[in-house]
What does this fold into?
Amino acid sequence: MTAQPAITAHPTDSRRRFLQQAASVTALAPAIGLAAEPLGKQPGTPLGKAENCILLWLGGGACHIDTWDPKRKGDGKKIAGSYYDPIPTSVPGVQFCEHLKRSARLMDRCVLLRGVHHEVIDEHAAATNRMHTGRPPSGTTIYPSIGSVVAHQRGAEGDGVPPYVVMGYPSASRGPGFLGARAGYLYLTDTESGPAGLQRPAGVDLARQARREKLLSRIRRRFLGKNLDDQQVRDYSATADLGLKLAGPKFMSVFDLKTESDSLRSSYGSEFGQRCLLARRLVESGVRFVEVAFNLNFINGTGWDTHNEGQQQQHRLIDRLDQGFAALISDLEKRNRLDRTLIVIASEFGRPPEFDKGGGRGHYSKAFSVMLAGGGLKTGQAIGTTDELGKNILEHPVSIPDLHATIYAALGINPAKELYDGVRPVPITDNGRAVGRALA
Amino acid sequence: MTNSRVLLACLGLVCGWTVPGVSSTSAAERPGLSEIPDAKLPTDAVLVEVLEGVPAKTSWDFPRSRPVERWQQPEAGWIGLPRRYSSQGLIVDRPSPFVLRARSRVDLPAGQYQFLVRARNASRLLINGKLIASTGFLSRNASGHETVPPAVPSQRKDLVDLSPGHNQALVDMTLGKPPPGGHVILLETFVGGAGVRTELGELMVGYAAKGKPFQLLGGDTSHPRGLSAVDWDRYFLSYSLELLRRNDERRRASDPLERQHWANRHDLARRATAARPLPAGDDSTPQVDRWLQAAGAIGLKTAVVDDHTFLRRLVLDTTGVVPSLKEIDWFFARPAATRRPDAIRRFLADPRWADHWVGYWQDVLAENPGILKPKLNNTGPFRFWIHESFRDNKAMDRFVTELVLMQGSRYGGGPAGFAMATQNDVPMAAKAHVIGTAFLGIQLKCARCHDAPYHPFRQEQLFNLAAMLNRKPLTLPKTSTVPGGSPSADSPVQVTLQPGSTIDPAWPFAELARGDLPHGVLRDQDDPRERLAALVTSPTNTRFAQVLVNRLWKRYLGWGFVEPVEDWHEAKPSYPQLLDFLARELVRSGYDLKHVAGLIFGSRAYQRPVLPNDTASSKTPPAAAPLRRRLAAEQIVDSLFVVSGKAMRTEYLTLDPEGRRGANTFLNLGIPRRSWEFAALGNERDRPALALPAARSVVDVLMAFGWRESRPHPTTLRDGTMTVLQPLALANSIASQRTITLSDDHVLTDLLISELSLPDIIERIHLSILSRPPTPREHADLLELLAPGFSKRRIKGARRQPPPSRRLTRVSWSNHLHPEATRLKLALERHVRAGDPPTRRLNGNWRERAEDVIWALVNSPEFVFAP
It folds into this structure.
């Protein structure tokens, strides 16, 4: 015998029905493979025209004063400061560290944000989560990553292509959270073999695949015949067909880098460069958002997380980053795709100018840099300045929500809109404001 | 020794796997068990004891206290330890460190021997009181910059390689003639220490007589256990199963007083809850159906599914996997008239009932352990408590009470793990939200930060509950409220609680349960947490029983009397009388879920053919039949492993396999046998050296089918979106390849090599995957593919290949930043991608066609939909 609590004036019946429908297991359209719906627009924000985004993720916390925002040199021991010399770039007044020579020549295609900041420094997973979702984690929902939001808002650029691909390790920070599986990603950890579980296993050649599929199509047809009135079963079959297409030669050929010229491949350089090349091919095939992890830790052991001895060989990481990034810009430009492709280089935090006992650096997030390139931005400028050792922001701070708002705006997504977690509206960024100076 | 002490000593020593003497009080208070003298040690087994009061120093120099636990096992080999339980039957921690002592008497003839001890932490081996071998102490690790230790391959084929992270002492010695009673062997090993988990690792004592193979010490010397790689792998698997059994035994013997308390509670509940008289009808009609007939939802002639479909459905719903060939044969050997009730009885008693429930409660209770420095709303791994509760068919009022009281081990799997919510500003508010949605149908999600916009719940009420859990008043932090207060006067979002306000413990839902409780229910009248548990589970709180039976009904039929199941605000249940009847049955049975499940399984409604799940055709009330739905991710993955009969063979689910870090930053969740045992694999850092490729391959398939890797908030329904990743997961994933590739450890390989005829083989393959024989047309299709070359399919003289093991890795947190660690893990990734080696005992061409048959059947939509 339960007395109901007092009823409010809100129409709960329709809400209940909405929730029931949203929660039902009715088949929804197959997530990957449908082209995007036309964009809506809201007044007040300049929206860009970029179509794709490539995020180069430097896992570990890349030191900003050893890369994009060089300062006076330290000595690697007691005297704080940059580890390398600065060099000029193609934009007067803007300098990079000496190991970013190729990128320095291309600074005029870039927008450098030097005043990025957050307060999550001590833990990699938490900071990675903050950079990807733009918000502290909640106990009532999981926020989507920037890649998932872009995939959700813009979809893939064609049929038979996933909207969001990750070259790196799967993690909740990269995932779709409350946006659900249709905003999820396909991932691969090895460029040679493509996405795990997507293509045919080794040992199954085309003839064998054809034989299997012939048998399966008979089996499926009979099952469908017994369940003609069942939309869910029909949708699953249709999805399976789409899946076989995705795993088929047309999309899988995107991963075959051997079709590119040797000279182009060597201009990109190492494994990281090859990933950048693959990212270009993926966006050309219609993938909306590609995240490329630079996590080749065997180069210096620690990757970008240069505590202690990791600092020693950091220049080799920077050199590979430089080569891949510059090749990507040039390649996209040659193919007339740079304006429609936004490139972002980000890391979970920066590093302080002081050195630790092993000659490396700890974590620092009160000021660090994020690099943007292409994407139809107002390139050739650095926005924001930091003080003499890169510890405090003097001009133009950019919060992580601001950074997300800028990326969304560049991609034609209104940064003032709301997403929906069930019935609960969630602003697309946590009160972020796009950096107007960066957008055309 | 006096006669009575000898008698006590003998009573403490029962043959085989003994029930231990364990006290649940602390070491200081515990008197300990009486010592067993050497002369009384077993000669065909090993006596194992736990000693506490060990200083956390790297030294053996301390007085040995009396053992507090004792058991026997056949051989001196361990891959883990049985759990310790409190007097409430909850998992509790042992102090860190403790010493494990193992003793035996062996009648080895005189001669030359090699003796072997392998241990992760310090150990000593004594023979007849003389120290003959020892290993060093484990050191805590702080960084990731150590070098990767070199591989230590064994020099002999009869000896498995040394497990990484372990030390070995190998000594040559000459044994003289054994003293009367045999040589006395004593092993002591440290477990745990300052800042390291109390984890045993792989421990063994072995020996080899000159010219003879190595064997494990102890046991029946006429049937020695070898120590080759294959032997140790087999021992690992059988010891794991034995640990499961031992834990059951210990736990069920640990809590007699607690059981008595709950028996009394259930008497009270029965007296407070009258049975609901059935409507007029035939006594042979199942009770559930009588209510549905009275509501006009079901007729006397309503058809039910055939036996094959019924069995598949029942076994998937009870055990979470498809029926094995043996189970199918058993079913059809029963007389037709009783086979369905027989099957319901058998599968309700199957211990895998527990495995199938864990995934459900992990979602509903937001169980969310992090294996690496958990900082994303992580809890402890209380999944193990959930599993054990369902293995014991624990009464649900007791289950909820234990959850709310949050006692036992925090990191070792007890309900204290529920109390954690890392980085959450008010963990108890998160827990109040969980309890409200799980057991009361009260959706408090929005009230976490402001008054609920579409429900009559204020934030203050959520915090009243939270304060009860907290056992004292709570202060509302700024981070748990909307900045700036209510957006406007007519906004649906209102903020009536100001940051900084204090909220007292108070039960805010008097309409669900009155505040007064009968005598004998509460053991501590002043504990608000216990009071909350009692109010939720009180028999006068009919909402609790109704929410539970509604969850059951939804789980088995695909629709609930109330939807959504966690939100009963203004709900108008369809079939309210049936709901009430089942709720009373639950209470009167002592909150026994199996009782109500049995009523549901036995009904015609449950046994009818599925109806399409189409919102366009959804009626009010819903049709009394199951709705079409896809199987849960765990059912699909676990069924794949039943079809192949293979163990999952992943890595240990830990980033610290050496055991050199504490449980508050690194957990080790063991090697999974079922899907619920997986967790988020924590590679946010994107470091290849932190990848667990074999585990990842299984998680990929689970996630494709909607399994949540991270569970920071409670939910009942998973994301049901259909994506291409789902059929792709069955077609091309690494994990599904393991079911398709006919390796030597695949159960179908032996079937295919057997003497059965081809038509019989085809039928058996079809049964094992789709639980039914093929129709004549289906049979013809498979015959066409498999007939050519069938008679020549067997390759004589080909040897079996052992399955690969990924248990052992030299990469651990301590060395993961070393470039060699990255290289080793990338090599492991390639190895996992290559899959299991196919058998050489079948002709390759024919074998491939058989694999294609398996592939096609597994990829049929029939495999993924509930039958």
